[in-house]
Design goal:
Structural class of chain A: alpha+beta
Number of strands of chain A: 6
Helix content of chain B: 25-40%
Radius of gyration of chain B: 22 Å
Strand content of chain B: 15-25%
Number of domains of chain A: 2
Distance between the termini of chain A: 14 Å
Largest sheet of chain A: 6 strands, antiparallel
Number of helices of chain A: 4
Oligomer: heterodimer
Structural class of chain B: alpha/beta
Strand order of the largest sheet of chain A: 2-3-1-4-6-5
């Protein structure tokens, strides 16, 4: 259930994202989705990758931490707005969301940060939406 | 139980003079002070003249309090007499010169006779024994060897104590770790900031310093450090970190150190008379009051100094310590008055900021204080490295951390400031004395 998101602390200055993406590339880690959130002098780079342990190793020296997020396929039946409405009906709040850089298993993928992962997963699955697990990303 | 500890500690004395009766100690100090004043009055052109100008004759020194009649010596006195004009013996008697780095001007030269080196060795042996270092221990000395007194001073003490020495000197951190590990060193001597850097590097190498290294005692000096750094040293590298104090003008390390009660640093008062003065008026302060530390050397041949102003800010405690030693203690050095920053009219020691930072688990060991001018006003910025445990996927939570650090420092200093959270490894590391303050206020 759920996939791993790595959050990396970076100073807000040129070259930090280049450093991270180059390191991942060199370690043959595939970045499937990412998003940069800035907070003035620093920011957090959020990454969903195919091999989180390998990525963590490649990012040695950086301050980073991992959490679980929901990854769900965007399809004809489950458009972004359909997913949002579905979560609204269950009173599930989305902290933030971003999408994959390329299709995963044939579909673009929505990454969702929510408080209650289990409940979100249940709500999506009940309606037949595809919720990805880490193995789906390798 | 208490008695047990004391009994155990008593086996760790290097010399019986450490427990000398206080009255006897004062008599010894007076005798040696009078000899020192006499010899400088008679033989030293510079100090002789200074004493005559102050109208102080050796016969005026009748009791210890008469020390306050003697004029102070400052680093400038050493500078104007560069290189060897203060040497009070024939240069053929001098077996060693040490030269202190002239970070704020010309270097200063300190000279030693054979017996000065001998006494210096003993003082360091006393310090190490006081920390529980004993035969069978292996000490790795990662203070610089050379013109700096740190490496050689501790080295002589360790040699006198008869323990095994790895004279690794400063630098080449990976090799330091390999040697500590392969040689099973039990004692590490270096600056506290370098000790933390060694621990950090060891972790990067995939080691667990507390488990994979066999260190027990840390001999950490040459820069002031706080109790929160002690906690970090205990957590990261060795269970028993001790503070050792000295300055090259007096001999180098070995002037004072902590015993295992760690409630101040015992000054070897049979060799140095400590005083605390008001740095502005020069008045001697009451015991317990905070002020500038001043030392008079009373057991040196090549270069005795009268009332040398250290610029270090501290307090004294003259009560006998629980360990049984009668030598007075200087409470931990709050900072060098040279390091004291005047920010918008407020006196600030880097150690005050350090204390706040190192208490917070989310923050790393490295920080830097940056002072600039914002128009006519001083601007204070503190850069501090974050630890992975501080990282949240939600940046606003980290902004909260930043604000918390700012509030904590503000409540201590009563000053507005900005805290910058920076990446681990981004601030400069030092293998010797850490440079924590970057004062750019003089620059356009």
């Amino acid at each position: 259930m759920a996939v791993t998101q790595i959050s990396v602390f970076v100073e807000n200055k040129p070259g930090r994202f280049a450093e991270i993406s180059t390191r991942l590339e060199r370690a043959k880690v595939k970045t499937l989705a990412f998003c940069i959130a800035d907070a003035g002098d620093f920011g957090i780079i959020r990454l969903v990758v195919n091999r989180p342990e390998l990525a963590t190793k490649a990012l040695k020296g950086f301050a980073e931490s991992s959490i679980h997020v929901i990854a769900t396929s965007i399809t004809k039946k489950f458009s972004v707005s359909k997913i949002a409405v579905l979560l609204r009906s269950k009173k599930i709040n989305i902290d933030y969301a971003y999408t994959s850089t390329k299709p995963i298993g044939g579909n673009p993928t929505l990454i969702l940060r929510v408080d209650d992962i289990a409940r979100t997963e249940k709500a999506l699955k009940e309606k037949g939406a595809k919720v990805l697990v880490q193995e789906d990303l390798s | 139980m208490e008695e047990c500890v004391i009994m155990e500690s008593r086996t760790l004395f290097y010399s019986s003079i450490e427990m000398i009766d206080k009255k006897e100690l004062k008599e010894l100090q007076l005798k040696r002070l009078r000899e020192t004043v006499q010899i400088l009055y008679d033989k030293n052109l510079y100090f002789g003249k200074k004493l005559r100008q102050a109208k102080v004759k050796p016969s005026d020194i009748i009791k210890l309090d008469d020390l306050s009649k003697i004029p102070f010596t400052t680093k400038d006195d050493l500078r104007v007499n560069y290189p060897t004009k203060l040497v009070n013996v024939g240069l053929d008697q001098v077996v060693r010169f040490h030269v202190s780095s002239g970070t704020t001007g010309d270097p200063t030269v300190v000279a030693y006779t054979e017996s000065d080196i001998d006494r210096w060795s003993e003082l360091n042996a006393r310090c190490l024994a006081m920390m529980g270092v004993k035969r069978g221990d292996i000490i790795q000395i990662a203070y610089g060897y050379g013109l700096f007194t740190g490496g050689l001073g501790i080295h002589y003490g360790a040699e006198r104590l008869g323990i095994s020495i790895i004279p690794s000197s400063a630098g080449n951190t990976k090799r330091q770790i390999k040697l500590i590990r392969d040689m099973h060193a039990t004692v590490l001597a270096c600056t506290p900031s370098y000790a933390l850097y060694i621990a950090e590097t060891a972790i990067q190498e995939g080691l667990e310093p507390k488990k994979d290294l066999n260190l027990r005692v840390g001999v950490f000096g040459a820069e002031p450090w706080s109790e929160s750094v002690r906690k970090r040293l205990i957590d990261q590298i060795c269970p028993e970190p001790y503070d050792i104090y000295g300055l090259s003008e007096l001999c180098g390390p070995g002037v004072a150190a902590e015993c295992h009660y760690r409630n101040g640093l015992h000054v070897w008062a049979d060799n140095f008379i400590p005083e605390i003065i008001d740095p502005k008026t020069g008045e001697v302060l009451e015991p317990g009051e905070e002020g500038e530390l001043v030392f008079t050397t009373i057991n040196k041949e090549a270069m005795p100094l009268l009332r040398y102003r250290t610029r270090d800010v501290s307090r004294m405690d003259f009560d006998t310590c629980s360990c049984g030693r009668t030598h007075p203690r200087i409470l931990r050095i709050r900072g060098r008055s040279d390091d004291m920053m005047k920010i918008r009219g407020v006196n600030v020691f880097p150690s005050q900021i350090e204390y706040v930072l190192q208490r917070m688990d989310e923050l790393g060991d490295q920080y830097q204080i940056v002072l600039t001018k914002l128009g006519p006003l001083d601007d204070l910025k503190v850069k501090v490295e974050v630890k992975p445990s501080a990282v949240s996927d939600k940046p606003w939570e980290m902004v909260g951390l930043k604000k918390r650090v700012e509030d904590e420092i503000r409540s201590v200093l009563n000053l507005n400031l900005e805290v910058d959270l920076v990446e681990p490894g981004s601030l400069p590391r030092s293998e010797g004395k850490a440079k924590r303050v970057l004062d750019l206020r003089g620059q356009a």
